[in-house]
Amino acid sequence: MSDEAIWDELDWRMQDGSGERLNRGRIIERNLARLRGFVCETMRHGRLCIAGDAAHIVPPSVAKGLNLAVGDARVMAEAFRRCIQSGDTSVLEAYTAICLRRIWPTVHWSCSMSEAFPRLSWPVRL
After folding, report:
1. Residue 87, Cβ neighbours under 10 Å: how many?
2. What is the pTM of this model?
């Protein structure tokens, strides 16, 4: 795409009804970001738990990141509830293992779909 075409696309995506255009300049970098997956297999260290993008990244082309983050939060909430109400730390201690059973298949599937259908990650104007 030419610089002008890139700026036109950005203007279209950022429009807010005011009619203003973005400040334009020379585009100096045209690299594409490789869509990749990442999983941190230690989601808990002592009393610190991580969830969502802090723990795992999935390619955005298949829209599974939010689903995984909500799943992490659900497990974490149950672990905290049990710990606070009854002193039961079993879910907290198993937090990583419980989450990874759901995360690994989803990340694997998402990466496979991004590789099989790379056009899914391209911007589509509706």
Report:
1. 7
2. 0.67
